[in-house]
Amino acid sequence: MTQPQRRAVRIAVANNKGGTGKTSATVNLAAALALYGLRILIIDMDPQGNAGRRLAADLAADQATLSDVLKALAEQPDGDLAGCATDAFAPIGWPTPYNDRITLIPSRSDLENRSLTEAGQLGAVQRLATALEGADDDYDLVLIDCPPNLGHLTQMALSAADYALAVMDPELDGIEGALALRDFVAVSRRKLSNPNLSVVGYIVNRVDLRVGADKYQVENSIPEAFGDELLLPMLPLRAAVKDAADSSPPRPLPALGSTGSEMAGLYNDLAKALALRVGLGTLSAEVV
Ligand SMILES: Nc1ncnc2c1ncn2[C@@H]1O[C@H](COP(=O)(O)OP(=O)(O)OP(=O)(O)O)[C@@H](O)[C@H]1O
Ligand SMILES: [Mg+2]
């Protein structure tokens, strides 16, 4: 008997502190998961458009973006637009096998307008969920790269998601941001019409054990605050992450060769831990 179609597991990657590594985690987890053969949809929920750039997406001038999708839903609230996110699907610029398995919903700076003009409108927070209805059935996982705040765009992502995933750096502000996300999910999930939303885990990124404060946080405060909810391994501060993101064109970590292999390996382990936690099972042999 064939199994009923199960839609993708949706994860909103968030922290209201900027620069903790949300976008790095989104694209590098996607790369690792793609090498295990999974199909990933990345939604760039940040008007900065960093995810699209790091995936080397070369957007055609007439490429529809997330902003267009949300605007259509705002303008035609009674229209039959469920699933219209497919209108904004775009290819990424990374080579095979990544481009076969990762699709992008890109954003430009005009995504900010959706916050400015539509936040607070009745039902606005559910528009991403509506746009994704049926649109992500062919994917295993949707990763939503949120902006560094808990405002309208992040709320839309949380309303559409099965899980939130926090990415923090080992500084008080980053830890506070992860705790704020945890509280926000607990307090707001019903208001976001998503009562089953939970935080699937906490990633600790940019760890520099030569710095006394970092060492203290990762050995004491962070395990005390998050315990088994941490998603391991923790990720060290490594130039390779920046090198991959800032090369021209941007590349996935394994494409850096030996320079990228340590971080790529850590991201593989993190991807396996995440897949297990969200019910995608044990990822084993890499399918290249
Ligand atoms: N483990 C790491 N080692 C070194 N550099 C890193 C690491 N993780 C991320 N970076 C770099 O840190 C900067 C911030 O990372 P990133 O853009 O992923 O954070 P972000 O949380 O998405 O930021 P924003 O809040 O602006 O969206 C980038 O230049 C990125 O390349
Ligand atoms: Mg980002």
Sheet with the most strands, sense and barrel status: 7 strands, mixed
Q: What fraction of the residues are assigned to beta strands by DSSP?
A: 5-15%
What is the highest CATH level, the class?
Alpha Beta
Which overall shape is indicated by the principal axes computed on the Cα atoms? globular
Distance between the termini: 29 Å
Low-confidence stretches: none
- Name the ligand types: adenosine-5'-triphosphate, magnesium ion
Number of helices: 11
The side-by-side strand order for the widest beta sheet comes to 3-4-2-5-1-6-7
Radius of gyration: 18 Å
Helical residue percent band: 40-55%
**How many E-type strands?**
7
Q: What's the name of the CATH homologous superfamily?
A: P-loop containing nucleotide triphosphate hydrolases
